[in-house]
Amino acid sequence: MRQFHVATDEEIKSGETTDVYFVRTKEILEKEGLAGTNVVAEVTSGGLPRGWPWAVMCGIEEVARLFEGYPVDVYALPEGTIFRPFDFRGRRVPLVVIEGAYGEFCTLETPMLGLLCQASGVATMAARVRKAAGDKFLMAFGIRRMHPALSPMLDRAAYIGGFDGVSSLTGAKIIGKKPTGTMPHGLIITFGDQVRAWKAFDKHIPRGVPRVALVDTYSDEKAESIMAAEALRERLDGVRLDTPGSRKGNFPELVREIRWELDARGFKHVKIFVSGGLNDRNIQELVKAGADGFGVGTSISNAPVLDFAMDIVEVEGRPAAKRGKLGYRKQVWRCSRCQIDVVKLAKARGARCPKCGGKTKALLEPLIKKGKIVGRLASVDQIRKRVLNQLKKLTLDDLT
Fold first, then answer.
1. Which residue, 36, 115, 191, 249, shows the most beta carbons closer than 10 Å to its own?
2. Domain containing 150: what range?
3. Residue 204 · residue 197 · CB < 8 Å
4. Neighbouring-strand partners of residue 44
5. How many domains does the chain have?
6. Among 245, 274, 301, where does a domain finish?
């Protein structure tokens, strides 16, 4: 008997987390002698939530593990690729392509889409927050808003999207980093005194952990910030404001006030961190006000799930797409200069960019060949770097 309502690795891998109609499809194909019918299927997006113009591809490593051992070939965009749903000419961009006997992999469609849709949504929101925050320090605080079984995926996707640190122990472990965090209100309330709690933290927690005091438990944030600075002085690394939603008035103005008061008292080294209710739309004001870092939770973990779909586009070498989709296997070519994509038949060779004449590069790369992983599974740091390099080519206007 399982204690928590989560599927095991074996259940996911064997297709037991699929929709029942795929099981029935497999049964029918087997009884009709069609289970070995070779198909080409592609994963596409018909649009992004909230009118987003672009998204970050995430979850490819898990897709590789899902299809490993199945007699199929899989091609995919490299994890961390920023993509738009449609190419330069308005054609849907294939994100993942699977080729093989449909009866062998039809039950994996549901778990594959689940692995891609949610992780890509989280990574996309994280990248949008990163773009809005500039080079400010970003911490992922959102695991308490979702099922705990998802904490590694949530923190990995947030890190890939450009965050600097993650709060969960499992999330930090999976990305090979130390968990990041400050202190909860519960610590201060248990002591019944802010200064005693801050000093106890400083006394007992290893020196490698930054001393960031939570300063909104009992008094005005500005008053508590000054109290924390005077209590720990040079040992204080920062203060954290955690209630922007409940603060009456202009919260960016409060950040400006605290920065002024700390600087005036000789505490220019003390940074200001803000958390609570932050997202890709309101963080820029706090950056301008002088905040040095942010803890972002709900908007990351509760990011919109991307709406991917898988469709068969070719059966035994013949075009077989349903209405609204384009038949035959395809390749995506990206211009290295202006970054537009062009979708062409897979057998067609790349050409110069139709917009600027620049060179184009094929994006869909081999991931699985006959059930074996052949693609290079990049480290999370390499994937994160790929995302950040692409973000540099986007402007703040691209967030709308």
1. 115
2. 132-301
3. no
4. 309
5. 2
6. 301
Query: What 3-state DSSP class applies to 359?
Result: coil
Residue reference for tokens 């990011």: 303
Q: Give the whole-angstrom CA distance, residue 17 versus residue 11.
A: 6
pTM over cut 0.85? yes
- Same domain flag for 250 and 372: no
Q: Are 313 and 319 in contact (CB under 8 A)?
A: yes
User: Of 238, 269, 301, which closes a domain?
Assistant: 301
Does pLDDT of 398 surpass 80? no
Nearest by Cα to 365 from 102, 156, 62, 79: 79
Same domain, 194 and 211: yes
E strand spans, 218-292: 238-241, 271-275
Q: Are 246 and 218 in contact (CB under 8 A)?
A: no
pLDDT the model gives residue 298: 94
Is 182 in the same domain as 210? Answer: yes
Structure tokens, 356: 């600027």
Say what angle helices 251-264 and 221-232 make with each other, to 10 degrees. 30
Tokens for 11? 């259940």
Give me the amino acid identity at 275: S
